Amino acid sequence: MLTPLLVFLFAYTLSLGVITVGYHRGLAHGAVSLGPALRGFIVLFGNWLTGLDPKGWAVMHRRHHEFSDTAKDPHSPANVGITGILLEQLRNYERTLRGLAKNDPEYTRFTEGLDFELSWLNRHKLWWLPYLTHVATGAVVALLLDPWIGLAWTAGILSHPLQGGAVNAFGHRVGGRNFAIADQSTNNLPVALACAGEGYQNNHHAWPKSAKFSYRPWEVDWGFGLCLLLEGVGLLTIDYDQLVPNPATSPTPR
Hints:
This protein has helices at residues 2-28, 36-50, 54-66, 77-80, 85-101, 105-108, 120-123, 129-144, 147-157, 160-170, 189-194, 201-206, 222-232; strands spanning 32-34, 236-238. By secondary structure, it is mainly α. A two-stranded antiparallel ribbon has the order 1-2. The longest helix is centred in the first third of the chain and has 27 residues, at 2-28.
């Protein structure tokens, strides 16, 4: 079972890495500057890998920060509870794509720096094609190689709804807070460990332009580790001036 596990971890990390490094820390916040090659890859192929439009994702996330835990937040348990997050984030993602397609100012005002169109898939109403492609790939691998490997690929690469649902639900309802800010964001350690640091929502909402989401020594953010790795090979640049401070030098969280 080692090979299926490795395949799952690779597919899971690939999907989550595109979102947490490319979409989130890169496009949405500019916490990292994506190099031309990586930015081009994210814009052209991110939707194929994750099923999520890079521009649509970044705009919806910026709206989440603007309206965090208010009635206009596109995915807050304050509005729909933990169990309603999956459906709510899907509905508002679809509204975001429609708003951008219609050049609705309610959505286009959140597009600064996103100087590219909605993906070809969404412009041609083929949003379902990446999902079909990944399921078909898994089925072919299952038939030709091993059913568990095929299942591992499909489960890993299509894991993003559960990742996003866990972050959006538990990261605004369950956990501690390092920073006394206006919204209800929390730091949920299990979600953060599973989702590349994304579960440290209180830290992130306090320091949204920080490429590192962790603050306390025991808070592990392996998504920032991916950023360091990609910076090491010249694919991106981290904005170190915006990093969340070290608690040893800044002992009083704001």
